[in-house]
Design brief:
- With 743 residues, this protein is an alpha+beta fold.
- It has 24 helices and 30 strands.
- 53% of the residues are buried.
Length: 743
């Protein structure tokens, strides 16, 4: 079956490559002047002229006389720089990938329509306050000005993209995709074994150690590639800063394919004066800084979903609708989607393996009418911590740890989400009976969840860790948190000196140390040294001895360590009758414990070292294996994908280093696809002291000079300054585009 699908994919893509309009395969090189010349100048719908200032990296700074004119210009900028990306994100959110890829994507579309990212949209839109409605309406008008009338992106021919206006419901569905609950990937991976001893054991171990989030299949790759699943954020109060102002730094961890999932923007209007990063197609700042406050966030990884067993539910309580899925180069297909009072019936997802006879429904916070757009618009105008916290009334997905710092020198942390009022999580089976749905009758919000203002030690750090690690009164909110290695390293760096500078925060963002890796490596070498007859492969082990856990690209020790894990972990799992667990929490919690419990421990250790040695001898450093690829996301296409690779270079970091560069078990060279992909540092002592850098560039247009021009900055650990003072903006963003109301 897999061979046939691959063959069909090859034939389909070969056909697509021959179709007219496939400029994506051979995109012409386009300079920044040409890209800016393509912007509209006379715009229907503007009230007053708008000025857009640009720097050499196509970063815009928008100045408007009204909030709605600002929103309109923002929409134009998003459409111009990321129009194709936004159209594709809309296809994902609406389950319309088969319109681009044909029948090969029909099962994925069926799954996406069952998950129903647009379910809450009508209720959210109906409840918008007038200011939100006006801002969103103007933003979409500007976006559609480009989508409907601007030049077509190079990908349009290859993917069969047609002109179609983006609606408010499309926008809200895209926001829900960005807020995907990463717990789904963990829960869904368990369901096929439900009712077996292995199922209960995997659930027990997951609750003890947390879980690594692995895409698993095509659907999982799409969801993790577009959701806000990771990140670091730190804050330092004024008393512990070298500048006399509070400091904030944020560092999202997302897909590393291009174009980036963030867009850097500065903007000024009567209500807004802010710089930061936005998700393309959404009219809000995800993180950034205004005149009074800066903020960043990390995914809380809370359990924003529950799976219910509805096998005993009367049939009349289920509703069924027929979805028509249009398939490129083929006839339309019809698929059935069932819903229940407990959520959509996810056991109907064709890509999801479940136990025969199980009928399972998914209850998700994202299906509730929470309003993230209004919350983030209000947060962008906050003048202090109190106003920032209050802005998140009604915020739901994705659950976030938000850190903030203000011009008064204060720092703080809140949890922004809504969650069911659970008493805890089940010990044997995460699939719940319908009686447990009572926890969803009244939801916790940020006011019920832990928060911190001005901690005694003057610093805050967040890295997807459990709230229980920093709040004694935390309710049970989840079970797939990061294992704590990353946040411990961040705090150690922050507390290592009496005062912290913005430069220290920039250095912290590229730190490649994993302290628990050193502990695990020492444990393995001690066991290898104790083997009868002495340690195997002494030359290889000599490269590992004394390792501090630093995954620098030029280091030898992480190369040996990871190749050793790559051979040992599957062997130990097989001996225990388990699936290999590659999440960092599972490795640091269970590997040595599992190894020591086995009667053939010594044999497994010796064999793993023997198999790893010839691999280790082929390479000199971690960066020889660990590669960061500069590529358009179309690199994932079979056959044609290599056309979209621009470069590949060695990179440091690992699964849980502050500069995250995610990977699985290592048996040879591999590409990093998830990790640190944007950087932000702000010093609240100076309105101009804000630096941002993207992995890649601002412009999503294939062939543009701005497509990957920030890669050298990212590699050199340099940022682009995003000032707030008008005179500095004018000096550093010298190229001016003026949008005028159409006559």
């Amino acid at each position: 079956m897999a061979t046939r699908l691959k063959r069909n994919a090859t034939l389909l893509l070969a056909l697509l490559a021959m179709l007219p309009g496939c400029a994506a395969l051979f995109p012409p090189q386009v300079g920044t002047d040409q890209r800016l010349a393509a912007l509209p100048r006379q715009v229907q719908g503007l009230e007053r002229p708008v000025t857009i200032r640009w720097n050499q990296h196509l970063v815009p700074w928008i100045e408007a006389e009204s909030d709605t004119d600002l929103a309109y210009a923002l929409g134009i900028v998003h459409g111009h720089l990321r129009g194709a990306q936004i159209e594709i994100m809309r296809k994902i959110a609406r389950g319309r990938l088969a319109e681009m890829a044909g029948p090969l994507a029909t099962d994925i579309d069926h799954a996406l329509r069952i998950l129903d990212f647009g379910k809450s949209g009508p209720a959210v839109e109906a409840a918008w306050p007038a200011e939100t409605r006006a801002f969103v309406t103007a933003f979409l008008a500007g976006l559609n000005q480009v989508v409907m009338h601007g030049p077509r992106p190079p990908e349009a021919g290859l993917l069969g993209l047609s002109r179609e206006p983006i609606t408010a419901q499309d926008m809200l569905a895209v926001g829900r995709v960005a807020g995907t609950d990463i717990n789904w990937l963990v829960l869904f991976s368990l369901l096929a074994e439900r009712g077996t001893p292995a199922y209960e054991e995997r659930w027990r171990r997951l609750r003890e150690a947390g879980a690594g989030v692995s895409p698993g299949d095509a659907l999982g790759a799409i969801l993790t590639g577009n959701s806000r699943a990771g990140s670091n954020a730190v804050a330092v109060d004024a008393a512990h800063s070298t500048t006399g102002g509070a400091l904030l730094a944020s560092d999202p961890h997302l897909s590393l394919n291009l174009p980036n999932l963030w867009l850097t923007v500065g903007m000024r209007s009567p209500s807004y004066d802010i710089v930061g990063m936005m998700v393309p197609g959404l009219p809000v700042m995800g993180f950034g800084r205004n005149r009074h406050i800066a903020w960043g966030g990390t995914n809380l990884r809370s359990a924003a979903s529950d799976v219910f067993d509805i096998s005993a539910l009367p049939p009349e309580q289920l509703t069924t609708r027929t979805e028509v899925i249009r398939q490129r180069l083929w006839f339309s297909a019809e698929r059935q989607v069932r819903d229940s009072p407990f959520g959509p019936v996810v056991s109907d997802v064709p890509l999801l393996k479940t136990r025969p006879g199980d009928v399972l429904a998914l209850r998700w916070v994202g299906h509730q009418p929470t309003d993230e757009i209004t919350a983030l618009l209000r947060a962008a105008k906050a003048r202090d911590g109190a106003e920032f916290r209050a802005a998140f009334n009604g915020f739901g997905v994705s659950p976030q740890n938000f850190l903030w710092a203000d011009t008064g020198g204060h720092i703080g942390r809140i949890i922004a989400t809504v969650l069911p009022r659970r008493q805890g999580f089940p010990e044997r089976d995460p699939v719940l009976p319908t009686s447990a749905a009572a926890a969803w009758d009244r939801l916790w919000d940020w006011r019920d969840l832990p928060q911190v203002t001005d901690p005694a030690d003057g610093v805050l750090a967040s890295a997807n860790e459990s709230p229980a690690s920093w709040a004694a009164n935390s309710p049970p909110v989840g079970y797939v948190f990061s294992d704590g290695d990353r946040v411990a390293r961040l705090r150690a760096l922050l507390l290592s000196r009496p005062r912290i500078s913005p430069e220290d925060l920039a250095a912290l963002q590229v730190d490649t140390m994993a302290p628990k890796a050193a502990v695990l490596a020492a444990g393995l070498t001690a066991r290898l040294d104790a083997l009868p007859g002495g340690p195997p492969e002494p030359a290889m082990l000599a490269r590992l001895r004394g390792w501090t856990g630093d995954y620098a690209a030029a280091a030898e020790a992480p190369l040996v360590f990871e190749l050793l894990l790559g051979q040992l972990v599957p062997a130990v799992a097989a001996a225990k009758g388990l699936r290999p667990e590659t999440g960092w929490g599972a490795l640091t919690t269970f590997l040595l414990r599992d190894l020591d419990s086995l009667p053939n421990r010594d044999t497994l250790l010796r064999e793993a070292a023997t198999r790893a040695a010839p691999l280790a001898a082929q390479y000199r450093s971690w960066g020889d294996l660990h590669r960061l690829r500069t590529a358009h996301w179309l690199v994932n296409l079979p056959v044609l994908g290599r056309r979209f690779v621009l470069d590949s270079s060695p990179v440091g970091g690992s699964r849980e280093t502050p500069m995250k560069s995610g990977h699985g078990l290592v048996t040879g060279p591999h590409e990093v696809s998830f990790g640190s992909m944007a950087r932000h540092v702000s010093d609240m002592a100076d309105p101009d002291a804000n630096w941002f850098t993207l992995w890649g560039g601002q412009d999503g247009w294939l062939g543009s000079a701005g497509f990957a021009d920030q890669v050298p900055l990212w590699q050199a650990r340099r940022g682009i300054r995003m000032p707030l003072r008008p005179e500095t903006v004018a000096a550093e963003f010298p190229t001016v585009t003026r949008l005028d109301p159409a006559r």
